[in-house]
Write a structure and sequence with these properties.
Elements lengths: L10 E2 L2 H29 L8 H12 L3 H4 L10 H19 L4 H18 L7 H16 L13 E2 H24 L3 H4 L4 H7 L5 H6 L4 H16 L8 H22 L5 H9 L7 H4 L2 H11 L1 H11 L1 H4 L4
Antiparallel strand pairs: 1-2
């Protein structure tokens, strides 16, 4: 019988999982910063729609001496266009170094400070769910990282409370997604007909959404039911042992891939997949059983393979008429 396990403060050694988690997070940071860099001139430059330099001046004028504590950002030091672009390039370099496994603590800390700085002055363009979520996940990842300049050194075990912090954030995201839909009192969700309209009313539909929208009504209705079950019921499996977490990770990943292939939500879906890595562990009793070890390793490849598929299809995910 599987029962919930809440030994939060027990230290665990999940070194391969942490390594994979950091690599996935490096990919997400790289995507987020590259996107910002490519759009900087139009959005945030001195001639952009919402110039960061003007917003910095505005914050200082209305917040007085408390401006740093209330809206922390590096760009109080200097908010020139070239400087901000160089900071974004520096973040891209840090992402690559993190992916290569070098100095994870310092790279994660640098990336977190940089992205927090950008989000706090990004105004309407960086006020989305995934921007805040990346800041949350990035901070928890810092607590997992070994403090060493060289390659990953995972001899230091991590308190289970840190791992569970990330798992609970994932639980909150999935549950809240279901509650928002069901609690909206929108009959389209309650009648399971929302996907009849979703594909052509979502913010940035792309070419695949056009074809999926043509599928029969019963597929759309069934998809809504399955999605709500995954978002509202499956998250509770996180608290029911290793098999429960493995099941949840696989189902979450499948859902995120389906959303990714039919819509454009930036790096949000990939970030959720990366968070699912925290649901995996490699216990001692698995290592001693060849058949279970093979199953575990095959299951664990689902997430990295998903990251590769999602990453290679970024251009396809762009909205196309």
């Amino acid at each position: 019988m599987i029962i919930p396990n809440f030994k939060f403060f027990k230290k665990i050694d999940n070194s391969p999982i942490r390594s994979l988690l950091f690599k996935g997070l490096a990919i997400v940071y790289f995507m987020a910063l590259l996107s910002l860099l490519s759009q900087f001139d139009g959005l945030f430059s001195s001639k952009g729609i919402l110039p960061i330099s003007s917003y910095i001046s505005y914050l200082i004028s209305i917040l007085g001496d408390d401006y740093i504590s209330k809206v922390p950002t590096l760009f109080y030091v200097y908010s020139g266009d070239v400087f901000i672009k160089l900071c974004l390039v520096f973040g891209l370099v840090c992402s690559v170094i993190l992916f290569l496994g070098r100095a994870p603590f310092y790279m994660l800390l640098s990336l977190w400070v940089l992205y927090l700085s950008v989000v706090n002055v990004g105004q309407a363009f960086l006020s989305f769910q995934w921007d805040i979520l990346l800041i949350e996940v990035g901070f928890i990842a810092i607590l997992m990282a070994p403090i060493k300049i060289g390659q990953f050194d995972f001899n230091r075990t991590v308190p289970k409370v840190v791992i569970w912090a990330l798992r609970l954030v994932l639980f909150r995201v999935m549950i809240s997604s279901a509650l928002v839909k069901w609690g909206s009192n929108d009959l389209n969700w309650q009648n399971f007909t929302a996907l009849d309209y979703h594909y052509w009313t979502q913010p940035l539909p792309h070419i695949l959404a056009f074809y999926v929208e043509k599928l029969p009504h019963w597929i759309h209705k069934g998809s809504v039911i399955v999605m709500l079950l995954i978002e509202a019921v499956v998250p509770f499996l996180i608290f029911f042992g290793r098999k429960g977490r493995l099941t949840a990770a696989i189902l979450f990943t499948i859902l995120m891939e389906c959303v990714f292939w039919t819509g454009n939500y930036g790096f949000f879906n990939i970030l959720i997949v990366v968070m699912c890595i925290s649901l995996f562990d490699e216990p001692d009793h698995v290592k001693n059983n060849d058949s279970k070890l093979l199953f575990f390793k095959l299951s664990k490849t689902i997430i990295p393979c998903s990251l590769i598929v999602l990453g290679l299809s970024l251009e396809l995910a762009r909205f196309t008429p």
